[in-house]
Amino acid sequence: MRAFVAVEMSEPIRDEVGRLIERLRRAGGSIKWVRPRNLHLTLKFLGEIAEETVSRAIAILRQCVEGVAPFEVEVKGAGAFPTPRRPRVLFVDAHDEPPTLAGLAERLNEAMTAVGVPREDRGFRGHVTIGRVRKPFSMADMAAELGKMAQKNFGTMTVSDVVLMKSDLRPDGPVYTPVERVALKEPHKGR
């Protein structure tokens, strides 16, 4: 099973980012755009995991979110990796203070090695992928559009759960199916 751990975007943020995708689509280029219903923030990409390890991955996910209370994330600004003029991935940024997302991502990165998922050495940056460049092309128009969106606020949402998602790759685009949704809860207070 191909899987990842993610935070799903709220409907209002999906709508706002969907409008951005339509605007950027007009700038042209060979880009595979993410459908608004598929917008999410990946905390840990697991890749192919054996069916017999799914229950263990769910248990690890539960352990990693234990004691984490619901928190706010602001989706603001747009950009490209590695640069706007030579992009491979187009994204919108996700910010939270204190950095709960980064903490969760690091816990998952370490803990999922128990089910054979390699540790990622690259640091975590909260972002929502909106498109992947298929073939390099002149990016002047796209870079200008991204520059206009550098401070655009797409909304704030409360993260109340984290999801283990199954990814089925199909010719018309991926289909994401929640396997397990783990609720965030206020930490228990001692007596």
Structure in words:
The protein has 4 helices and 9 strands, in the order βαββαββαβαβββ. The model has no long low-confidence stretch (mean pLDDT 93). It has helices spanning 11-25, 54-65, 100-111, 140-148; strands at residues 2-8, 30-33, 40-48, 71-83, 86-95, 127-135, 153-159, 161-168, 175-183. The chain is globular. It has 191 residues and is an alpha+beta fold. It has a 5-stranded antiparallel sheet. Strands 3-1-8-9 form a 4-stranded antiparallel sheet, covered by helices on one side. It has a single domain, classed as Cyclic phosphodiesterase (Cyclic Phosphodiesterase, Chain: A), CATH 3.90.1140.10.
Number of helices: 4
CATH class: Alpha Beta
How much of the sequence lies in strands comes to 35-45%
Radius of gyration: 17 Å
Assembly context of the chains: single chain
Helicity level: 25-40%
Under CATH, the topology can be stated as: Cyclic Phosphodiesterase, Chain: A
Largest sheet: 5 strands, antiparallel
Distance between the termini: 43 Å
How many structurally independent domains?
A: 1
Lay out the secondary structure.
Layout: E1 2-8, H1 11-25, E2 30-33, E3 40-48, H2 54-65, E4 71-83, E5 86-95, H3 100-111, E6 127-135, H4 140-148, E7 153-159, E8 161-168, E9 175-183
Antiparallel strand pairs: 1-3, 1-8, 2-6, 4-5, 4-7, 5-6, 8-9
Helix pairs in contact: 2-3
